[in-house]
Sequence to fold (205 residues):
Amino acid sequence: MALTFQYNKTSLQQLEKQLKVRERSLPTIKSKESALRMEVKRTKDEAVALEKQLEGEIRHYEFMMSLWNEFKPELVTVKDVRLSTKKIAGVLVPVLDGIDFETARYSLFNSPSWYADGIELLKRLASTGVEVEFTHLKLTMLERARRKTTQKLNLFEKVQIPGYKDAIRKIKRFIEDEESLSKSSQKIMRANQEKRNAKNGEDAA
Fold:
């Protein structure tokens, strides 16, 4: 990172202030990055488990496939997906609170006897399907937040903090060299003045 600074005490104070801000923020960013990393892993595992569950449910009812030709899929629709939000490591993520279904009216006498079971089965499959999609959405949001936090952590740790420290070191060295040079110049000037004074004293005598 190319820092713009001047070789003076004002610039030094400003850089030291900026460095302190970043050093104080670093533990918080590290904790956030660690928490998000863990949450991403947990959500990935949850997504995999839900996908397996959905596949298992579909396989379990494969024997009914021939019956689905008689079924009217419009009998069951998703009426509402209830969501809320919560914060995970400072990131607002959605929470699936529930799924509401709407079942159309059908004749119990004229429809096959397994329709009621079919409706419940469709609800279960749809619920798991919605959970799978929702978990992938949540995972995408968490991964994006984790990537941004990791980028910020790397920026602070590997670029900005070393950059500020290097600039501070350069300014301090410059100021020290300038002060040493100034002291040396003063000593030379005093020595010359003393010589002149001594010579003037001899001439006067």
Remarks:
- Residues 33 and 149 are 6 Å apart (CA to CA).
- The chain has a mean pLDDT of 85.
- Strands lie at 76-88, 91-103.
- DSSP finds two helices and two strands in the chain.
